[in-house]
Amino acid sequence: MLQFQDIQAAAARLQGQVLDTPCVESRTLSQIVGAQVFLKFENLQFTASFKERGACNKLSQLSAEERARGVVAMSAGNHAQGVAYHAQRMGMKAVIVMPRFTPGVKVERTRGFGAEVVLFGDALEEARAHAYQLAEERGLTFVHPYDDEQIAAGQGTIALEMLAEQPDLDTLVIAIGGGGLLAGIATAARALKPSIEIIGVQTARFPAMVNAIKGTHHEQGSSTIAEGIAVGQPGQITQEIIARLVDDLVLVQEGDIEQAVLMLLEIEKTLVEGAGAAGLAALLRYPERFRDKKVGLVLSGGNIDPLLLAAIIERGMVRSGRLARIKVSARDVPGVLARITATVAAAGANIDEVHHQRAFTLLAAQNVEIELVLQTRGRDHVQQVLEQLRASGMEADLM
């Protein structure tokens, strides 16, 4: 059973091997959510994820014979990079099995740490089974991403640092995939501060730990932007610890996570992947639950696919009204497009896209329908643009 002493020993092993990341208050986020929010910047680790803590702790305890044979791990990305990086540092061979859906940025970075990457399966479970097979065939030591006490002990060192830097924290909100991070943090935090409230967060598309502990039957999805916590089967070791030490588990939606990623980028100027934003997503979805509390969040990773980030930014702009699509109908006469664009410019909006439609419309033949994608300051500004277009004699509406 994982003990507080295991986490203290892990902290000693990790000294100088991983970064003691800052844990500081975000005043702006605190104002927005109505709680005092402290962020632990684990996305600043060398591999941009907390996962290297557990990996380093595990690999440091292997025997000389195990080191000589090498290790194998299964991961959608962050655990892979942690194992590959520290195996390379310690002179060990590492084989990493990754599901085929793993973002390319994580695959290439893992290869960059000298690991042999094997892409196998369309789900974590398939990749895990293949990793076990390779371990048996090649005599490699399997390094589990979460269901391992030495891994969880390494992750638990985060709580030691958080409570050393911010001892007044009264609530921790931690993302859950397989549960290694939460199990380690809960073990350390409960020992250091028994009164602290500990809340776990899962994406509604992968609610395995919530179902296992609460006895619920939420359906499981097939994909999520928080692929780092897209785990279909919770760990047995971690489940026992979480059931015993964690106060509650909550679910967040994809939109909550998208909003949290964008807010951290805009407000904190820090890049966080979907899984790393799950804690903030919980504060955004359940603000009353955390109001006036001193809440610690772990920004657990920053390895996000650039194309996914671009989509999140664009969708966030649409939700906030800063990117809007409007339809303008007018008489199809020379200069009408110039009038429309001039009116939009006078209203202070920028045109991102224009689509001039004559054939596929129900308007009279002498009319034209023009679709515009606009960059604006927000929803109120969009309405101002529409009003100015209407005042110029054109029909204009949001699409």
UniProtKB/TrEMBL annotation:
<dbReference type="InterPro" id="IPR050147">
    <property type="entry name" value="Ser/Thr_Dehydratase"/>
</dbReference>
<keyword id="KW-0547">Nucleotide-binding</keyword>
<comment type="subunit">
    <text>In the native structure, TdcB is in a dimeric form, whereas in the TdcB-AMP complex, it exists in a tetrameric form (dimer of dimers).</text>
</comment>
<dbReference type="GO" id="GO:0030170">
    <property type="term" value="F:pyridoxal phosphate binding"/>
</dbReference>
<dbReference type="GO" id="GO:0009097">
    <property type="term" value="P:isoleucine biosynthetic process"/>
</dbReference>
<dbReference type="InterPro" id="IPR044561">
    <property type="entry name" value="ACT_ThrD-II-like"/>
</dbReference>
<comment type="pathway">
    <text>Amino-acid degradation; L-threonine degradation via propanoate pathway; propanoate from L-threonine: step 1/4.</text>
</comment>
<dbReference type="GO" id="GO:0000166">
    <property type="term" value="F:nucleotide binding"/>
</dbReference>
<dbReference type="GO" id="GO:0006565">
    <property type="term" value="P:L-serine catabolic process"/>
</dbReference>
<dbReference type="GO" id="GO:0003941">
    <property type="term" value="F:L-serine ammonia-lyase activity"/>
</dbReference>
<feature type="domain" description="ACT">
    <location>
        <begin position="325"/>
        <end position="399"/>
    </location>
</feature>
<dbReference type="InterPro" id="IPR002912">
    <property type="entry name" value="ACT_dom"/>
</dbReference>
<keyword id="KW-0456">Lyase</keyword>
<dbReference type="Pfam" id="PF00291">
    <property type="entry name" value="PALP"/>
</dbReference>
<dbReference type="InterPro" id="IPR005789">
    <property type="entry name" value="Thr_deHydtase_catblc"/>
</dbReference>
<keyword id="KW-0663">Pyridoxal phosphate</keyword>
<comment type="function">
    <text>Catalyzes the anaerobic formation of alpha-ketobutyrate and ammonia from threonine in a two-step reaction. The first step involved a dehydration of threonine and a production of enamine intermediates (aminocrotonate), which tautomerizes to its imine form (iminobutyrate). Both intermediates are unstable and short-lived. The second step is the nonenzymatic hydrolysis of the enamine/imine intermediates to form 2-ketobutyrate and free ammonia. In the low water environment of the cell, the second step is accelerated by RidA.</text>
</comment>
<dbReference type="GO" id="GO:0004794">
    <property type="term" value="F:threonine deaminase activity"/>
</dbReference>
<comment type="function">
    <text>TdcB also dehydrates serine to yield pyruvate via analogous enamine/imine intermediates.</text>
</comment>
<dbReference type="InterPro" id="IPR036052">
    <property type="entry name" value="TrpB-like_PALP_sf"/>
</dbReference>
<protein>
    <recommendedName>
        <fullName>L-threonine dehydratase catabolic TdcB</fullName>
        <ecNumber>4.3.1.17</ecNumber>
        <ecNumber>4.3.1.19</ecNumber>
    </recommendedName>
</protein>
<comment type="similarity">
    <text>Belongs to the serine/threonine dehydratase family.</text>
</comment>
<dbReference type="InterPro" id="IPR001926">
    <property type="entry name" value="TrpB-like_PALP"/>
</dbReference>
<dbReference type="InterPro" id="IPR045865">
    <property type="entry name" value="ACT-like_dom_sf"/>
</dbReference>
<dbReference type="Pfam" id="PF13291">
    <property type="entry name" value="ACT_4"/>
</dbReference>
<dbReference type="GO" id="GO:0070689">
    <property type="term" value="P:L-threonine catabolic process to propionate"/>
</dbReference>
